[in-house]
Write a structure and sequence with these properties.
- The protein is about 50% helix and about 20% strand.
- A hairpin with a 2-residue loop joins β5 and β6.
- It has four domains: about 80 residues; about 90 residues, Beta-Lactamase (2-Layer Sandwich); about 80 residues, Signal transduction histidine kinase, dimerisation/phosphotransfer (DHp) domain (Helix Hairpins), CATH 1.10.287.130; about 150 residues, Histidine kinase-like ATPase, C-terminal domain (Heat Shock Protein 90), CATH 3.30.565.
- It is built from eight helices and 13 strands.
- The two termini are about 65 Å apart.
- By secondary structure, it is α+β, with helices and mostly antiparallel strands.
- The longest helix is centred in the middle third of the chain and has 50 residues.
- The chain has a six-stranded mixed β-sheet with strand order 1-3-2-6-5-4, covered by helices on one side.
Length: about 450
């Protein structure tokens, strides 16, 4: 995997964002801790210096009447500077390193003043100085007590060094942990990607692994498997459709070729019969191609419903007259009553025509049509119910769902004759479902088939 690929990966981006976020937080916390530690050390030093002033005030020091500064002794290891200064700036007492020089700090304007500065010319290092006005036997004085801040700076520097070391190490360790965790979390996604990439048109049965964790990755895998199942189903249906269409076209083409072969040697007297037979085959192929085009447009979502008020009873009576003219069957319409709905008149006419054609082909002698506006169970809404019944061989329970499939192959008793394309009921179901309705078959063998359509009423 190239560096550019790694940098663009989700794993790298999450790790980088986590590292930056943690780094910023640790730097902010470190700065706060460093500042708090500095303030704490300064406060401790100030308390120590104030305590030294209190000790000096309670000590019995002879500060009046002397002409030379009184030298005060420090305890062993104590390098604190002490000065007693008159208001005019004269140093009258102090530690050995603080006498013989001028005041080490300015007199406070109030009672006390705390400052941080080098004590020149005694030392160029930084000192913490507490200055306080006091009253003594020698008159009002200012006491300066100062301590070197090297210890404070050393402790602060040590803490800064620890933070500068620990923050990058912590960010690096945390980034490594995040990198590992994200990689572990995304591993199922990589498996899903690899499995999907390996799916080919000839191997659509493959599925991606589902972790079973119930999280987003598991839901993604389940969604991918559902999508692959739909793709497999659609592809298989298309393959069956193409195979069935090719098979259905083969027979009329073969018959047409035979007719043309006969026409090539037929006498003038027989030519009209051959031509009429060829026209029948051509019309059969045209009907099949027309039905195939309807289904292809439906599959491509190009077929839409144009809603208009429709009197379905008018369509039924019109198509019944047409079927009576084409077929030698009795069509009973005594149970047809007025029914109104909103839909596409041309598409609904095709549904009625397909159902009547199907019933006429399989009826022994009679087809009955029923049409009524009924109340929908439950909510009281209106339904239009159309039933087309034939007295043919019926549909077996096993074929009740398959009868609406494209080019369905049913048992011999209900096998379609040469008059149908095998697509009429599939087209009818497609149109009915796009109108928000349902189509079912209620059949008892040897008693005929009853096709029932229910559509939302107007």
């Amino acid at each position: 995997m190239s560096v550019a690929t790694i940098v663009r990966s989700v794993r790298f981006r999450i790790t980088a964002m986590a590292g930056v976020a943690v780094g910023v937080v640790l730097i902010a916390v470190g700065a706060f801790v460093l500042d708090a530690q500095r303030d704490q050390l300064s406060d401790d030093l100030d308390r120590s210096l104030r305590s030294r002033i209190d000790d000096l005030r309670s000590a019995d020091l002879d500060l009046d009447g002397s002409t030379t500064p009184l030298v005060l002794a420090n305890a062993a290891g104590d390098d604190t500077l002490v000065q007693f200064v008159r208001l005019d700036g004269e140093v009258i007492a102090g530690t050995a390193n603080a006498v013989g020089v001028g005041p080490i700090a300015e007199a406070p304007t109030g009672v006390e003043r705390v400052s941080t500065a080098p004590v020149v010319p005694i030392d160029d290092d930084e000192y913490r100085i507490v200055s306080r006005r006091i009253d003594s036997a020698a008159g009002p004085l200012v006491v300066h007590v100062a301590a070197n801040t090297d210890d404070v700076r050393d402790l602060e520097g040590n803490l800064r060094s620890v933070l500068l070391t620990m923050i990058p190490v912590t960010v690096a360790l945390l980034s490594a942990v995040v990198w590992w965790l994200v990689g572990r979390t995304l591993r199922p996604v990589d498996l899903i990607r690899a499995e999907v990439a390996s799916v080919t048109g000839s191997d659509l049965a493959r599925r991606v692994p589902e972790p079973g964790t119930g999280d987003e990755v598991d839901r993604l895998a389940a969604t991918m498997n559902a999508m692959l199942a739909r793709v497999e189903e659609v592809t298989a249906r298309q393959q069956r459709f193409v195979a069935d269409a090719s098979h259905e076209l083969r027979s009329p083409l073969a018959r047409l070729r035979a007719e043309l072969d006969v026409a090539a040697v037929a006498s003038a007297a027989d030519f009209d019969d051959v031509r009429a037979s060829a026209i029948v085959e051509i019309e059969a192929m045209a009907a099949l191609v027309d039905d195939l085009l309807v289904l292809a447009r439906s599959d491509a979502q190009e077929s839409t419903v144009t809603p208009r008020p429709v009197d379905l009873d008018d369509i039924v009576f019109s198509e019944v007259e047409a079927i009576r003219a084409r077929c030698d069957v009795t069509v009973d319409v005594h149970a047809v009553s007025a029914a109104h709905l909103v839909g596409d008149s041309a598409q609904l006419r095709r549904v009625v025509r397909n159902l009547l054609d199907n019933a006429a082909r399989h009826a022994a002698s009679t087809v009955a049509v029923e049409l009524a506006q009924v109340e929908r169970p439950g909510d009281g809404g209106g339904l239009v119910r159309l039933a087309v019944v034939d007295d043919g061989p019926g549909v077996s329970p096993d074929d009740a769902d398959r009868v609406f499939d494209r080019f369905a192959r049913l048992d011999v008793a209900r096998a379609a004759d040469g008059g149908g394309t095998g697509l009429g009921l599939a087209i009818a179901r497609d149109i009915v479902e796009r109108h928000g309705g349902t189509i079912t078959v209620d059949s008892e063998q040897r008693r005929g088939a009853r096709f029932v359509i229910e559509l939302p009423g107007a």
